[in-house]
User: What shape does this take?
Amino acid sequence: MNTTGRVGKLTKSATVHTNDKKHPRLKLTISTHVEKFANITPKRVRLNGLVGDQISSSVTIVPKKKYPFRIVEAKASRGENISIKLEEKKQEKGDEYLLAIQNMKKEKGRYFDTVLLKTDSKVKPEIKISVYGNISDPKPKKKPSDTKDKTMK
Assistant: This one.
């Protein structure tokens, strides 16, 4: 059962077919409780804007006290259209991380990338942040309209 991005009680069921004539089918149910490893805000990044604009976003990663970890490496999966910078911030409540993501695409188009954060945790050795980019052409400037005074007769 994939629990990525899920928190709380999860239940999955499956039907098993047997050769037992009294019980030709059995329904198996598996339940588990998934806890948050960290508070990640936002979970996904959208870099939308116009060609030539500075387009960026940031993600805050705060480890849960029950599952402390350090981020030891940050890299973009593709890295063609984004640049990233990871900053560790010491807080009274515990460490937190600020991940800055900046668009590097110079022309119109869409892209997808993933920022991979390697941790020193055995519980979750890698955190993935999805990045979606949508860069549009600037809207053409309108021609100045005729400024002559037009009156209705």
